[in-house]
Design brief:
This protein has 153 residues and is mainly β. The protein contains one helix and six strands, in the order βββαβββ. The longest helix is centred in the middle third of the chain and has 6 residues, at 70-75.
Amino acid sequence: DLKIYGEFNVLGLKNIINKDADTSIQKHPFERLNQRIPWMLGINLPGFTIIDLISIEVGNWNNPFANEFYGPRKNFIPQHYGRNGWSDAINENLKWSIYLKKRFFNHFGVVVAFARDYVFDLDESSYGPNIDFEETYRYHGDYYWRLKFEGDF
């Protein structure tokens, strides 16, 4: 409890400028180093025997566009714009999560999570013309919650 942790990554040192796609400076990702440094900070809070784990994380990536995997996955090249145009690719960079876990009788557990993170909710078996290959929770107010029951023997 009360452990503070964090991480950051530098995703390359070379600035990538692609002015052939569009002349607007806002539409060229990775032109500055701060656009290539995602970071995350977290803290584990005490649960006072009521809850076994309370973890809160916050992160930011100054990437002007949503993460997407269609270009890298299918064509092995990055695609820095939405399939439906530039406005579709806009991303709110602040991400967060709250994770709670409680164990019962040494074999069972309940996990509750609330988050707005880099999740891709996509069924790869249902590719079609209207599939959005960008991260799911990228607009202001987007978040999800999950409830999980665990058992191990």
